[in-house]
Specification:
- It holds the Pfam family Sec10_N.
- This is Exocyst complex component 5.
- This protein is mainly α and 700 residues long.
- Among the domains are: 104 residues; 152 residues, Methane Monooxygenase Hydroxylase, Chain G, domain 1 (Up-down Bundle), CATH 1.20.58.
- The chain is built from 26 helices and no strands.
- Helix 11 runs antiparallel to helix 12, helix 16 runs parallel beside helix 18 and helix 19 runs antiparallel to helix 20.
- The longest helix is centred in the N-terminal third of the chain and has 104 residues.
Length: 700
């Protein structure tokens, strides 16, 4: 433990009698002093003893350090001597190794010519046996030594190729020509390879293939291997899956058999594509090529997709340096005759199919499509008829039919979607934007022009004149359905066409075509604004039939029980219904634009309608109630201008009931101060008491 002087002295005093540390004892300072003196002397003696011991240990340590240093010096000297001996030994070993290498080179220089001479002697011996016409050597007669015989025949064949042509022809005339033996042996090796492959002996196949590698028949050996690999491999209906499994199995085996596995595997794949797949594709496509365009296109897309998927799987294997180009050429060789005129078949099918879908729909409606004029005299006659109510010819009665069908639209879009998918897969990258634009043009022709535009034209022609009674405004239903359909068209444009043309000049052309379609439809919709004339006409009929002169000039001023007139109730109900219909039929800014136009015309109608009557005091109150109800109806428009117009009209109606003394004050109010004085005067004139001198004097 750490030494603490205070605690040590305390313990010493506590142990000393008379130290005063224990209770009940008298304090004796002398005894305590004596104890301290004695203890100090003991500590001095202990310190001297420990100091002597420390000095002794230091001397011993110095002595051992000197001895250790001396020993280290001796070891260093021994190490230097050993290192010198090692260098001498290394130099000696290097010298001996140099001598051995030199001797080996000399021996090799002597032995190599000797081995060549021995080999040449053996070949001359075998050559002589062929010349004598009698093969005696065991290597030719023993079937188990076919590998050695093949090596000899291969070397003799190389020698024969260096002979002059005349000598070679003379030599070939001998009964046992080694050229014949060359071919016989080659056939035996191929047969042996075939047998080993059937037995599944990979090691034997590898040995025979290594021997045949130097023979001309090596390629035939590869062909035999490829042929036998395919035996029993294509038993199922899915030739593409069978091909993938076969290539996977052969890829594991070919490296164990051949020294050039990538070449053999590539040749197998080429054989599969050019024989199996090409035959299968031809059978599937030629059956429907001329008779059924729909099935032909489906099969072409499916077969091409499955072929490219198979190619992607084969990319995992080692097929040489440029396997991508290799596989692409194989696919092109199969489908080139079908892809050259693909887009013509696609457009022809899409055109006939779209026409059939539309015709089937119109037939189901018992409707014969008619040519509807969109300009010139017919359009002028229609405009004059609608605006002047002159009987220039009846409008077309559509019987409430919009001639728009979401089922037809979905079918057309589905056919076009499939066409875009086939186009993306089957078109050459350089032709893809152009082909996609042609498909898009077909969609525009049949969906936008033949269906939507025709429905809009028919709807426009079916708009009744403004003086028609109980007219049904089906054009808004046409607008509603056309708007929904165009959203679907726009979605397909963005989802399926844009990815195909986004990086080509055709993008701007497609966008312009789409813009032209939108503008053309907007023109038709703007022309349909004449529907508002019919709405106003219906309101006029309601007011003419329901509004009575006695409504605003009752016979009994004190017995008026209604809050607003029956005409007001029916007009407001009709207007609310039409506002809701407009909101459901349109979207965006079009809703506000049409509602503003309707609201302004509605205000003008009520304004002009109120000008037709004279008002008693109670009648004026009833007119104010009617206008208040019209103003509530105007709030449904949610158009600020329309609400302001009806607020002003409501303020004008106050002139019908205000006391003569207050007329000037009311006319100078916030809502009427900016109005023309003639307008104010015209409303004051509607009062039954206007002729009174007092009223005329106050208003003047």
């Amino acid at each position: 433990e750490p030494f603490v002087a205070d605690e040590y002295i305390e313990r010493l005093a506590w142990r000393t009698p008379g130290g005063g540390s224990r209770g009940g004892e008298a304090f004796d300072p002398k005894r305590l002093l004596e104890e301290f003196v004695n203890h100090i002397q003991e500590l001095q003696v202990m310190d001297e003893r420990i100091q002597r011991k420390v000095e002794k240990l230091e001397q011993q340590c110095q002595k051992e350090a000197k001895e250790f240093a001396k020993k280290v010096q001796e070891l260093q000297k021994s190490n230097q001597v050993a290192f010198q001996h090692f260098q001498e030994l290394d130099e000696h070993i290097s010298y001996v190794a140099t001598k051995v290498c030199h001797l080996g080179d000399q021996l090799e220089g002597v032995n190599t010519p000797r081995q060549r001479a021995v080999e040449a002697q053996k070949l001359m011996k075998y050559f002589n046996e062929f010349l004598d016409g009698e093969l005696k050597s065991d290597v030719f007669t023993n079937s188990e030594k076919i590998k050695e015989a093949a090596d000899i025949i291969q070397k003799l064949h190389l020698i024969a190729q260096e002979l002059p042509f005349d000598s070679l022809m003379d030599f070939c005339c001998y009964p046992f020509s080694f050229l014949g033996k060359y071919h016989d042996l080659e056939c035996q090796l191929i047969q042996e390879f075939t047998s080993a492959q059937r037995r599944g002996e990979i090691s034997r196949m590898r040995e025979v293939a290594a021997v045949l590698l130097h023979f001309k028949g090596y390629s035939h050996c590869v062909d035999v291997y490829i042929k036998q690999c395919q035996e029993g491999a294509f038993l199922r209906n899915d030739v593409f899956e069978d091909a993938a499994i076969l290539c996977q199995r052969v890829n594991k085996q070919v490296g164990e058999v051949f020294s050039n596995p990538e070449t053999v595997l590539a040749k197998l794949i080429q054989n599969i594509f050019e024989v199996k797949l090409q035959s299968y594709v031809k059978d599937q496509l030629e059956e429907h090529r001329k008779s059924d365009a729909e099935q032909y296109l489906k099969n072409l897309y499916d077969l091409y997709t499955r072929t490219t998927n198979l190619s992607s799987k084969l990319m995992e294997f080692n097929l040489g340096t440029d396997k991508q180009t290799f596989l692409s050429k194989l696919i092109k060789s199969i489908f080139i005759s079908y892809l050259e005129n693909y887009i013509e078949v696609e457009i022809g099918y899409l055109k006939s199919r779209s026409a059939m879908i539309l015709q089937r729909y119109y037939d189901s409606k018992n409707h014969q499509k008619r040519s509807i004029g969109t300009g010139g005299i017919q359009d002028l006659k229609e405009r004059i008829r609608q605006r002047t109510n002159l009987p220039l010819g009846p409008s077309i009665d559509t019987h409430g039919e919009t001639f728009l069908s979401q089922e037809v639209v979905v079918n057309l879009l589905q056919e076009t979607k499939q066409a875009f998918e086939r186009c993306h897969r089957l078109s050459d990258p350089s032709d893809l934007p152009k082909n996609a634009f042609r498909i898009f043009s077909m969609l525009v022709e049949f969906l936008c022009t033949e269906h939507i535009d025709y429905a809009l034209e028919t709807g426009l022609a079916g708009i009744p004149s403004s003086d028609s009674k109980n007219a049904n405004l089906y054009f808004l239903d046409v607008v509603h359905q056309a708007n929904t359909i165009f959203h679907l068209f726009d979605k397909q444009f963005n989802d399926h066409l844009m990815p195909l043309i986004s990086s080509s000049p055709k993008l701007s052309e497609c966008l312009q075509k789409k813009k032209d379609i939108i503008e053309q439809m907007e023109v038709k919709l703007d022309m349909g604004i004449d529907t508002l004339n019919c709405m106003i006409g219906q309101m006029k009929h309601i007011l003419a039939a329901e509004q009575k002169k006695t409504d605003f000039k009752p016979e009994d001023e004190n017995n008026v029980l209604i809050q607003y007139t029956n005409a007001c109730v029916k007009v407001c109900a009709y207007v609310r219904k039409q506002v809701e219909k407009i909101r459901n039929s349109m979207d965006g800014k079009n809703v506000d634009t049409v509602l503003m136009e309707l609201g302004v015309r509605f205000h003008r109608l009520i304004y002009e309608h109120l000008q037709q009557y004279s008002y008693s005091c109670m009648g004026g109150m009833l007119a104010i109630c009617d206008v208040a109800e019209y103003r509530k109806c105007a709030k449904d428009f949610k158009i600020v201008l329309v609400l302001q117009l009806f607020d002003t009209l409501h303020a004008l109606c106050n002139l019908l009931v205000v006391a003569p003394d207050n007329l000037k004050q009311v006319c100078s109010g916030e809502q009427l101060a900016n109005l023309d004085k003639n307008i104010l005067h015209s409303f004051v004139q509607l009062r039954v008491d206007y002729r009174s001198a007092r009223l005329a004097r106050h208003f003047s």
